[in-house]
Amino acid sequence: MGQGPSSSFFWGRPMVPSLHGKMRNIEGKMDCDPNTLALRPGLQSLAKCLNHPSRERTYDRLREGASTAQDLVGCEPRAVQEGARLGRSEGCGEGWESRAAPHPHSSRASVLRPWGVVGAWVGRGVCQRTRAAGKKRSQPERAALGFREGGPGMFASGWNQTVPTGEAGSMAALLLLPLLLLLPLLLLKLHLWPQLRWLPADLAFAVRALRCKRALRARALAAAAADPEGPEGGCSLAWRLAELARQRPTHTFLIHGSRRFSYSEAERKSNRAARAFLRARGWDWGPGGDSGVGSAGEGERAAPGAGDAAAGSGAALAGGDGAARGGGAAAPLAPGATVALLLPAGPEFLWLWFGLAKAGLRTAFVPTALRRGPLLHCLRSCGARALVLAPEFLESLEPDLPALRTMGLHLWAAGPGTYPAGMSDLLAEMSTEGDGPVPGYLSSPQSITDTCLYIFTSGTTGLPKAARISHLKILQCQGFYQLCGVHQEDVIYLALPLYHMSGSLLGIVGCLGIGATVVLKSKFSAGQFWEDCQQHRATVFQYIGELCRYLVNQPPNKAEHGHQVRLAVGSGLRPDTWERFVRRFGPLKVLETYGLTEGNVATINYTGQRGAVGRASWLYKHIFPFSLIRYDITTGEPIRDARGHCVATSPGEPGLLVAPVSQQSPFLGYAGGPELAQGKLLKDVFRPGDVFFNTGDLLVCDDQGFLRFHDRTGDTFRWKGENVATTEVAEVLEALDFLQEVNVYGVTVPGHEGRAGMAALVLRPPHSLDLMQLHTHVSENLPPYARPRFLRLQESLATTETFKQQKVRMANEGFDPSTLSDPLYVLDQAAGAYLPLTPVRYSALLAGDLRI
Question: CA–CA separation, 321 vs 259, rounded Å?
């Protein structure tokens, strides 16, 4: 083989003269794709290296390109494939295919990423081209090449000699064999094996997530490019429903009791609702509602910012032609106005919600239990202009009607009945409208981050806040069930309130995302659950909070066997209930998730690992970024280092979950003043100027990369100078067979710093309270500072309508036996037992005579 320029080799492969031209062609293609623009510096460096007149500097120029390669690691897969293809076709090689050792001075990043990294020609091998006369190889170069004078190596005996490709490949394999044999031991020593054992599951989920993102992006682009006069040009919710009505018109979308609705029926019902709301905006569709656009025209599409400005103002509210029907005398509803729904979970809720979206109006989901002050607060905070309520709520709302009229709200009832003046039946108005599609431009947002919906927080720490939900979040929630592995032919059982994010966004919108069937229950019934699942052949069950606990506490019945439920998806399932649930009702998989209504971060335990809420693998965090940082329970603030930056936690250490705020994952806050979002954003977390969303939740990442919920920052308390996690104490107590439910919280004790632990207990029938066994159990399983000082025996635990325990209210009620009718007990340290908390002992405690 000749050794002149015409026969030179690049890493053992012939140089193709047209390499530079091919690179120019690739660069031209990259100009059309912004995701691959980062490749250009790497290609240019390679071109300079290969075409430089002085071959002596080839090696140095390869070294200069190493920093460029580091910048290309995070580029798109297409760019990766293009760079790898270039290397293979032109002799640049990839990874160990280069048949040469890494450059001794190449970046560590390039060595640790030998596969699939764009710019694989940098730092991966050494050029075998003819060396300049008189130029000797340095000792590091000789070591990198495995070179020995007169001896075998990757190259035979000198720079100008090469070995045949087959022989070099065999020698490389021999060199790699011991490394491959030692690799498992190395991974064990580096403590990487516990995480790498889950690598196949991580990779499978990453592929699924990327496919889901690609599909959702395609939907958004298709809607943007669609005819604005057609339904496909509307918001993501309207566009997706119209698409399903076209693709799967007869497929069952909704089952509610004995009623069934196909996707085409859902489209027509929502179109009628949209036309009724548009008539309230002052539109005139003519008789039957099918005669054109009417008086408003295209120029009156919703102004996304208008509703934001009105939210929280409590200004005079309006109704239009619909208001005239209902006895009102106000101007028509403005584009982008907010209409509140006070309805139970049912088909009418969905038709009105979808109709409001198509009409370019915002929806506010009001919790059905709110009355008086909290109800008026919610309506004012979101700037509602109208209220649609269920007829069955009218009696309990009668004392609130004068205040609602004073606010200027337009009032509708969703169903027939006898109503006071100023209220009309919205469903009757819908029946007179046509069911044809409405123009898409009415609901098309100016920005995908515009607010389209308000969902109220549970209000466990105060009055509910109206969280802003954007069109982007609606689009993202369409991919929820796809990420969970649910398919089109699955039947989803949903018994959650629709005013909650889990029921509406994850349950309903997630079902629309895959085009499946949902069985909707207005109220959860533990006794009827398995019969319903068998009757409707449900395959997926969505839970929240304590629903699974209610099921395992039910007496056995025949219906719990032979069901087809294969997957339970939700959040808030405690580990002890998880095990009992799977053991009794399995085989089925539990997929625990974590997320917040207003948050920009979510986790999914796609492996099914019991007790975990998600994974913290680098693959998952690359797609859905988040971090755990150290948190000071005493100050209620993150711990920062000397530079003022937050400190990441170590495995096994509880940390505050935070997520970066960006255009792809924004935080929109709440309707009302900016003070409502105080504390939700953290700045300068890891570098100056960055902004992170504060979830307010403490999580733990174990050595295998699994995330486990630890506690709420407001629920964790300090006693005797130590931090006490309420969830850990509750799990210990729930291990006792005579306890069915436990709620642990901290109470203030006069004369003591911090808060003492108190546990509200519910007995499991037919057991009785065994105070001696309870004391022995907590003494053996809890450190002294974490043992509850007070016990409160209850018939049932106080929860919100979303099945969250009422810790704040219970803490405020305290432990005074003169104000509480429930049996109370106190831990007497001197007696070493739990004793009844009588007024005498309560007085002794306040006087400091009773030591706790």
Answer: 32
Residue bearing tokens 């995908």: 448
Tokens of 356: 């409001």
Rounded to a whole number of angstroms, the distance between the first and last alpha carbons of the chain is 90
Burial 410-443 (b: 16+ CB within 10 A, else e): bbbbbeeeebeebbbbbbebbeebbbebbbbbbb
Q: For 84-93, 727-736, 780-789, which range has the lowest pLDDT when averaged over its residues?
A: 84-93
Eight-class DSSP state of 505: I
Other CB atoms within 10 Å distance of the CB of residue 777? 17
Comparing 238-242, 271-275, 314-318, the range with the smallest average pLDDT is: 314-318
DSSP, residue by residue, 718-775? EETTEEE-HHHHHHHHHTSTTEEEEEEEEE--TTSSS-EEEEEEEEPTT----HHHHH
The number of C-alpha atoms within 13 Å of 758 and in the hemisphere containing its C-beta is 28
- Percent of the chain, pLDDT > 70? 71
**619, 206 in Cβ contact below 8 A?**
yes
- Please give the model's pTM, rounded to 2 decimal places: 0.70
**Window from 304-308, 557-561, 646-650 with minimum mean pLDDT:** 304-308
Residue type, 589: K
Long-range pairs, 177-185, Cβ under 8 A, ≥24: none
pLDDT greater than 70 at residue 490: yes
Query: pLDDT tens digits, residue range 454-476?
Result: 999 876 556 889 999 999 999 99
Tokens for 383? 């700037």
Q: Are the C-beta atoms of 545 and 802 separated by less than 8 Å?
A: yes
Peptide bond into 464 cis (omega under 30): no
3-state secondary structure 599-632: CCCEEECCCCCCCCCEECCHHHHHHCCCEEECEE
Mean pLDDT to the nearest integer, 417-437: 92
Tokens standing for residue 275: 């036309």
